[in-house]
Amino acid sequence: MEIKASGGALGASVEGIDLGQGVSDRDFKQILRALGEHGVLCFPRQTLETAAFWSVIPALKAKVTEALVGALSAQGTPPLVLCHVSHVYETGASLYFTIVSAQTDDHVAQWRQAKAAASAAIAAAGGTITHHHGVGTDHREPYATEIGPLAVESLQAVKRVLDPNGILNPGILLP
Fold first, then answer.
1. pLDDT digits over 39-67, tens only?
2. pTM, to two decimals
3. By three-state DSSP, how is residue 97 classified?
4. Does domain 47-131 have CATH number 3.30.300.330?
5. CA torsion 60→66→68→72, rounded to 10°?
């Protein structure tokens, strides 16, 4: 992992790490130190993602942007929210959001509040909580809500049969 200062109020860029693959305690501590030192961190190619049918894409983009702007502005850190279509399918597309905001003293709580608002907006607008980057612990509860109790129970049954010792991603996908 490499942290490169971007200069002035632009913070720093973090390269050579895939947040979707998990972060070691050592790397997490290094990221937190860099956040404290630089105030703003950019993780290139690390985004908030969703996907939906074409019929809901415009409203989905608007609602997620509004939720992020509202949640972060309410904390005194109005953000710049960027969005692009990254994958196009016959029936819909995926939207990738990049969010740049100053940090508060409790930047973890700040992001959790913004992410919760974005997740609720995704669900309300008819998007999916994840696209091809996977679910992970950040999305576990919203994903379980999205797919419903029967699907969760079905996945748990499959996991019990295929992973009886519970060694494959314990607690990551399923509650």
1. 655 554 446 889 999 999 999 999 999 99
2. 0.71
3. strand
4. yes
5. 180
